[in-house]
Design goal:
This protein is an alpha/beta fold and 300 residues long. The protein is built from 12 helices and 10 strands. It has a single domain, classed as Alpha/Beta hydrolase fold, catalytic domain (Rossmann fold, 3-Layer(aba) Sandwich).
Length: 300
């Protein structure tokens, strides 16, 4: 992963880093990184959904699990999960509308269409039921879908995300957050510079988003609270995972959401910030896999 240039100098090759991690994991291939992180494997597919082209991948066989990335990611974000989960599940990753290769169109509904986009994708794949794993922004998609179509959700994993659920305590904790908010625990970038670099490269692969786009996204997510009553009524097994050092949605905020969903489980992960799946993948994978194996049936 490093190229030796002397006794005390090492140069990290971006191409080799990306190819060795992703291709070695059997998930994706990449070429011409100067043009951005672009999946080139035969696994990447697209489908027209109501005039909008969504890009997605499917790996493995078994009960379906859908991984919904956050605002700093694309379908590539799950490269540390898919090689592990495909041994037991049919894994679906996708680029949200307006992220990665899934370009928004028309009046650019963006996050307003996330839930319907996921429904259309599952219909296209003939998946009647799936477990949903949502990271940060992807938690809005996961909880929103589970609230709208609870009969189609076998289990719900909310990763560093309140998913749009709110109450007076959540509102208070949101308002009290520090202005210093980062994707990782403070020590991560120093301890894992290659991975931090890769994360940033994936984030920048959505290169045409403007500052207005990001502002509209944040405003849209927080202006439309998600009603979790149908998740509660249907007793959908729910796991909340949050990094102990998450500065974006701190543990006490996630815990407040967890307390309002009876029967839900909460895992607070030490030495992790807002990206547990990326910072502590082995811990994340073991925790989520065991949770899913308890609740997910053989229904495809």
């Amino acid at each position: 992963m490093h190229e030796e240039v002397g006794d005390d100098v090492k140069i990290i090759s971006r191409r080799k880093l990306f190819q060795q991690i992703l291709v070695g994991g059997g998930v994706l291939a990449a070429s011409d990184l100067s043009m951005g992180f672009t999946a080139q494997s035969g696994s990447l597919k697209s489908v027209q959904l109501d005039g909008f082209e969504m890009f997605y991948e499917c790996h493995g066989t078994g009960p379906a699990v859908v991984f919904a990335h956050g605002a700093g990611g694309t379908h590539l974000s799950w490269w540390q999960q898919i090689p592990v989960f495909l041994e037991h599940f049919q894994c679906v990753t996708f680029d949200h509308r307006g992220f990665g290769r899934s370009r928004d169109v028309g009046d650019k509904p963006g996050q307003r269409s996330f839930v319907q986009d996921l429904r259309n994708l599952l219909d296209h794949l003939d998946i009647q039921k799936a477990a949903l794993v949502g990271q940060s922004m992807g938690g809005w998609t996961a909880l929103g879908f589970a609230s709208s179509f609870p009969e189609r959700v076998t289990a719900l994993v909310m990763c560093d995300s309140p998913g749009g659920y709110t109450n007076s305590e959540v509102d208070r904790l949101m308002a009290a957050r520090s202005e210093d908010r980062e994707a990782f625990a403070k020590s991560f970038s120093e301890q894992e510079p290659e991975l931090a670099f890769l994360y940033e490269g994936i984030r920048r692969s959505t290169g045409d988003r403007t500052s207005d786009d990001w502002s509209n996204l944040r405003r849209g997510l927080f202006s439309a609270p998600v009603d979790a009553s149908r998740v509660i009524e249907n007793e959908i097994p729910t796991l909340f995972v949050v990094g102990e050092e998450d500065s974006i949605f701190p543990p006490e905020l996630i815990e407040a959401v967890h307390r309002d969903i009876p029967g839900s489980e909460l895992a607070i992960i030490p030495d992790a910030g807002h990206s547990v799946y990326f910072e502590r993948p082995k811990v994340f994978n073991r925790l989520v896999k065991e949770f899913l194996k308890r609740y997910v049936s053989s229904v495809r």
